[in-house]
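Researcher: Go.
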Amino acid sequence: MRHRTPYPLLLAGAALAPGACCEQEGGEAPPNIVFILADDLGWGDLGCYGQQLFSTPNIDGLAANGVRFTQCYSGTSVSAPSRSCLLTGMHSGHTPIRGNLELAPEGQFPLPEGIATIFSEMREAGYRTGAFGKWGLGFIGTSGEPSRQGIDEFYGFNCQKLAHSYYADHIWHNSVRIDLPDNTDSVPYGEGTYVPDLIHRKALEFLEGSVKEGRPFFLWYPTTIPHAELIAPRDSILQRFIGTFPETPYSGTDSGPGFRTGGYCSQEYPKATFAAMVTRLDVYVGEIIATLKALGVYDNTLIIFSSDNGPHLEGGADPDFFDSNGPWRGYKRDLYEGGIRVPMIVSWPGRADEGTETDFVCSFWDLMPTFRELAGVPDDASDGISLLPLLESREGQKEHEYLYFEFQEMGGRQAVRKGDWKALCLNVRSEAPVYELYNLADDPGETTDLSGERPDILSALKDIMKEAHIPNPDFPLLRGEFYSKSMT
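Model: Structure:
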């Protein structure tokens, strides 16, 4: 069923950021939850998953003190639908948001009113809920507004397209627009407020405020790092990497209609900047851990770290240079392993085994039932399975019969994993869809298509593709499906 073994850190000297640690009083208090979700961070972009060109000691420290998953899958291969899978506990053939659909005036297609999300369920269970970073699941005033999806406090980018800019001219605090006057054309781009720094400070304030209120908290931290564009403050972190790597400058959007509204800026040092951005995220993680310790709640906090999909190829990024997708084929927007297999680390002092890895096959839609079990809420509507038995090293861990993925763009794509077998369908809306079949146990890099040799296996997985996809008129996948842009 699963395999758990101690593993050595790949980088010497990996350690958590320092901070005072106080014991949690009471023993029976519900655990706090911190969920850090990186944006387009590849499997191989962390030291504990094999990165050799820069270090991530604080994230590696989480792995050293927790469980490192080697077969975790995101919801799908781009932001909005992957997050919808995570927050609703439904795979991409069932979840309400199936693609990155832009809507006026600012934002993406909204989550529907009344749908159960991790936030609504945890708030009902008595948790103070907060989201700090990128939302992308419904603009202010729609049913997808964070406050209408169970979030007590939201701070960050509502629109994921505008979140492309790290020096955006505004962000949102709940339903209030916050203008950033030093991120206007009067200040040279890159010399104003680096928005991830601002969001990070507000997230730390949320932790402090929650502890003062004496309430358990659920902090969702969907950072924009390291999504393109590639830019970071010219501080000591960036200076550490300039001149370290061979560089090909990137010419991007530095003025005009796309500037600060979705285009990626030019970058003289794209590789150094990428390394600096991931390093900065690692520093953020260290400061979150240090804050939890200083507040005396670290020992009663479940920390999860993951990424929403595989590495991107945009804005001057070079995932091949950094081996960002590790041993897997493909990138963001692919349903090959490199687009959907993501790092996931769970640290839970005293509950989850320290310094272990597991090859248990899991997915983003497993987090909803996991949190439901943690909060004592029955799970009768999700596509996932609770991971608590595995984390607590006890009997009763269920396994998936299969995992299903779909992707709206590039002619439509589907994928099914069942056991060691994985089938893909490319160009699903064409008159002649292309099917591929791989055995991941023998061919983890998906190099040898076995669809002609094992038509029996392919036929069974094609049947699952048909069964797992429920048509959604707002996100048509197959030929002939009705499409409407009506906004709820």
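Model: The radius of gyration is 21 Å.
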